[in-house]
Design goal:
It contains 11 helices and 13 strands. It is α/β, with parallel strands linked by helices. The chain has a 5-stranded mixed β-sheet with strand order 2-8-7-6-5, with helices on both faces. Helix 4 (about 85-95) crosses helix 7 (about 225-235). The protein is globular and about 60 Å long. The two termini are about 40 Å apart.
Length: about 350
C-alpha cells in the first residue's frame, strides 16, 4: 500500500483494457475496433480545420453536435447528452442515478467496467446470472433495486435482447433508472431509443467508437427523458465543463452527415461476421449468436488460453477472459476479410498440427 493512497483507492481493482502492444505488428481482433476507416469526409475536416480555433475553449454545451444527434435520432436537443467516450457518459450516469439505498443490477457476464464503477463510487450491486446459453432472464430483474444497466447486445457474449424484453424490463421497474448500453447496437440489435417517449426512466447510451470507426476520438452520448439528461449535465458541470473538444465535435458532425458510408461499413462487418461464424464452426468451435462486431466462441477440444497464446505467437490478438463461466471462451472481433482469412488459416494450423500436448 502506498501511504498516500486512500483506503478506497487501495481496494480498487481497475478495469483492464484489451492489449495494445507495441512490440510488433499484430492483426488486432481483441478490442472490437472497426476494421474500416472512418468516413472519408473526415480527412477534409481535419485538413481544413482552422487551428487558430484551438486557442479558445470549446462550446461547453456542444450545442451543434447535440442538435445534430437529436435530429438524427428523432428527439429534442434536451434529450441528448454528450461525453468524452461512452465510458465517461456511463460514469456520470452511475453517479447521477445509481447511488441509492438498494443495490443496482447487471448481468454476471457483462461489461467489466460496471463493477469497477460501483467500487469507485461505492455503489452496492448484484449480478443476476445469465442462463446456460448466456442469455439474460428478464424476470431476474423484477426485484427491488437501485437501478439496472444492461448492454444490448451484451458484451462479451454478443447476444441481444428483443425490444419486447426491454419494454418488459422497463415496465417492471418504473421507479428505477434503466440504462441500455448500446455500444454495439448497429450490428444487428434493435435500439431501445424508440421506447424513450414511453418510459421516462430509460437512458440509452451509445458511442462513436465501434460502428463509426472513431475509437481514437473518444466520443459517446446518451439519449433519454430531459430530466435524466439534466441530471447528467449537473454531474458533468461538476466534473469537467469542456469534455468535447472543438476538433472532435467537427469530426463527429462529419461522421453523422455521411450516412451512406456508415451503412456500407456496418453491412460489411455483418457480412464478414456471417462468413467467419461458418468457418469457425467448421473448425469445431461453438459460436454464440452474435448481434455485435465480435463473436464469443469456445472449441470442443482446445483450451481457450492455449489458443489465445498460440494465436498471439502467430501475430494475431484475440481476447481471452480468465473469468468464471467464460474461462474457456475467446472473444474475436470481426476484422476485414483478409484479417478473418488470416485468423482461420492460423487456427486451422494450430488445431490440426500433429502431436499436440
Amino acid at each position: 500500500m502506498n501511504r498516500y493512497w486512500s483506503k478506497q483507492i487501495e481496494a480498487l481493482d481497475p478495469y483492464t483494457p484489451g492489449e495494445q502492444p507495441r512490440d510488433q505488428q499484430y492483426i488486432k481482433l481483441n478490442t472490437n475496433e472497426n476494421p474500416y476507416p472512418p468516413s472519408p469526409s473526415i480527412a477534409g475536416v481535419i485538413r481544413d480545420y482552422d487551428i487558430g480555433r484551438l486557442r479558445r475553449y470549446p462550446d461547453p454545451e456542444s450545442q451543434e453536435l447535440i442538435e445534430s444527434l437529436a435530429t438524427y435520432h428523432g428527439l429534442e436537443s434536451n434529450q441528448v447528452f454528450v461525453g468524452n467516450g461512452s465510458d465517461e457518459v456511463l460514469a456520470h450516469a452511475f453517479q447521477a442515478f445509481f447511488k441509492q439505498d438498494d443495490p443496482i443490477l447487471f448481468p454476471d457476464i457483462s461489461y467489466s467496467f460496471y463493477p469497477v464503477y460501483c467500487k469507485l463510487f461505492q455503489i452496492e450491486y448484484q449480478q443476476p446470472a445469465l442462463d446456460g446459453g448466456f442469455c439474460i432472464t428478464i424476470r431476474d430483474y423484477a426485484s427491488t433495486n437501485g437501478g439496472i444497466i444492461i448492454p444490448n447486445p451484451n458484451a462479451p457474449t454478443g447476444i441481444a435482447l428483443e425490444i419486447a424484453a426491454i419494454r418488459e424490463l422497463l415496465a417492471d421497474n418504473p421507479e428505477s433508472v434503466v440504462i441500455i448500453d448500446e455500444a454495439y447496437v448497429d450490428y444487428g440489435a434493435e435500439s431501445a431509443r424508440q421506447l424513450i417517449p414511453e418510459f421516462p426512466n430509460l437512458l440509452v447510451v451509445r458511442t462513436f467508437s465501434k460502428s463509426r470507426s472513431l475509437a481514437g476520438l473518444r466520443l459517446g452520448y446518451a439519449l433519454g427523458h430531459k430530466d435524466l439528461i439534466e441530471a447528467l449535465q449537473r454531474v458533468k458541470n461538476s466534473f469537467n465543463s469542456y469534455p468535447i473538444d472543438c476538433l472532435a465535435s467537427a469530426v463527429a458532425l462529419a461522421s453523422i452527415a455521411d450516412e451512406d458510408y456508415f451503412q456500407e461499413c456496418r453491412k460489411r462487418v455483418i457480412a464478414s461476421r456471417g462468413r467467419l461464424t461458418t468457418e469457425l464452426q467448421q473448425l469445431g468451435f461453438e459460436v454464440f449468436q452474435s448481434s455485435s462486431n465480435f463473436v464469443l466462441v469456445r472449441h470442443d477440444k482446445e483450451p481457450a488460453e492455449t489458443l489465445y497464446l498460440e494465436l498471439k505467437a502467430a501475430g494475431i490478438l484475440v481476447r481471452y477472459f480468465n473469468q468464471a463461466r467464460i474461462e474457456n471462451c475467446l472473444r474475436i472481433s470481426i476484422g476485414s476479410d483478409p484479417e478473418c482469412d488470416a485468423l482461420i488459416a492460423a487456427l486451422n494450423t494450430i488445431i490440426n498440427q500433429e502431436n499436440r500436448s
